[in-house]
Amino acid sequence: MESCINTIVDRINDLDKEVSKVNSYQIELNDLKQKINELSEGTLRNDQWVRRSNIQINGIPHKKCENLIQIVKSLASKSGYCSNPDTDIDFVTRVAIKNDSVENKPRPIILKMQARYKKDDFLSSLRKIKNLKASDLGYAGVNTSIYANDHLTTYNTRKSLLNEARRRAKEKGFMYCWVLSQGKTMGSLKNQYTID
Questions:
Q1: Range of the structural domain that residue 173 is part of
Q2: Domain stop point among 151, 167, 185
């Protein structure tokens, strides 16, 4: 009987050790989850930081052998922004659209300026153009609206917030919805006299 009790006590001690290991692993797992979350948030912040001097231009149709620098020059001219592409522009490219539900939608143009303040100035001047259409830039018969915004990351909640704000602004009859300084300020315009 005593040996049976000793065996049970030994098994209980072994189980206590295993429970301690599991508890230790659980603590380690929770720490690792927290570190992964911190790294993910840091990566998302860094991804947005890299885009701080970028403008995303939507609505410009793709042409074979297009000159994106020339398109940017045309936009600068239309908006009254004085630009020197040789010193102001880092690069211009088109990017793919993920999970786009509308086929034949033109891919956005990403413009990276050499300095963030130049991006802010150019973006501000582009937003002052009312009802800019592709036909205004020489795309005959194409009436898609052209608009420009900060180039936000796909996972950036501000992008989701901006999209939701635009959807609601459209429902409420607002003409415009915008974000300044990468999501720090937001406004909408119902008519020329009402700002929300």
A1: 153-196
A2: 151
